[in-house]
Amino acid sequence: FKSLGFEILSQYNIFPDHLFCFEFADGDCTTVASPFGLMANSIGNVPIDIKIKDRPMIIGEVVKFVYDFGSEWVRNVKLIKIIREEK
């Protein structure tokens, strides 16, 4: 989900300098993510190591992408294809 968030922002030419998360229809939510862990940690309880919760991605599922919690930039995202990153 972290890679997906960065890809969404790049498609809108948005530099990712705020926190973002994904919210699911069942009310579940990923943990927050940001490329600037130290900056994010200075405002409170956001972990520096920034991890996205383990949750399976389901093709066809619609999730809400929320960026910049202060100004809430929101987009609905439908997962149509999943490409696994090689580690």
Q: How many beta-strand segments?
A: 3
Unreliable runs: 38-50
The SS-based structural class is alpha+beta
Average pLDDT reading: 77
Q: Write down the overall geometry.
A: globular
**Strand and helix order:** HEHEE
Helix content percent band? 10-25%
Number of helices: 2
**Biggest sheet, open or closed, and with what strands and sense?**
3 strands, antiparallel
**Integer-rounded radius of gyration:** 13 Å
Distance between the termini: 15 Å
> Which strand order does the major sheet show?
1-2-3
The percentage of residues in β strands lies in 15-25%
Question: Features of this protein?
Answer:
single chain, 87 residues, alpha+beta, three-stranded antiparallel β-sheet, 3 strands, 18% strand, globular
Summarize the structure.
The chain contains 2 helices and 3 strands.
Strand and helix map with partners:
Blueprint: H1 2-11, E1 20-23, H2 37-41, E2 62-67, E3 73-78
Antiparallel strand pairs: 1-2, 2-3
